[in-house]
From TrEMBL:
This is UPF0102 protein MOTE_10980. Belongs to the UPF0102 family. NCBIfam families: PRK12497.1-3, PRK12497.3-3, YraN family protein. It holds the Pfam family UPF0102. It comes from the Bacteria. One of its GO terms (molecular function) is nucleic acid binding. InterPro entries: Restrct_endonuc-II-like (IPR011335), tRNA_endonuc-like_dom_sf (IPR011856), UPF0102_YraN-like (IPR003509). SUPFAM superfamilies: Restriction endonuclease-like.
């Protein structure tokens, strides 16, 4: 991954975490890693565990941020969520998957964000 792409991702994730906290989410984990991969943000809101994928874009050339969460990515996130819930003894808890779309301008400043609740 290029440094520019990594930097954009870090900017997007930091902005998304701040937005989520402002919307009443309680951040439990950021960049949770396990043998199956990584989840950007895990939070709690209204007695639900929320698994959040953050997608950051600086142009619409390849579509919207949320459109980049394809079927393969959704399947991976479901497996990661099951692993997380099982490893924490939370298997019976209600959960959902949200996507935070982050737009950056040419100076890599956040120009817009959207939370897509229950994205899949």
């Amino acid at each position: 991954m290029s440094m520019t792409r990594r930097r954009r991702g870090q900017i997007g994730e930091a902005a998304a975490a701040a937005l989520l906290e402002g919307e009443g989410y309680r951040i439990l984990e950021r960049n949770y890693r396990c043998p199956l991969g990584e989840i950007d943000i895990i939070a709690a809101q209204d007695k639900e565990i929320v698994f959040i994928e953050v997608r950051t874009r600086s142009s619409r050339t390849f579509g919207t941020p949320q459109e980049s969460v394809d079927g393969r990515k959704r399947m991976r996130l479901r497996r990661l969520a099951a692993y997380y819930l099982g490893s924490r003894g939370l298997a019976g808890w209600s959960c959902r998957f949200d996507v935070v779309a982050v737009w950056l301008d040419r100076q890599e400043r956040v120009s817009g964000m959207e939370i897509i609740k229950g994205a899949f």
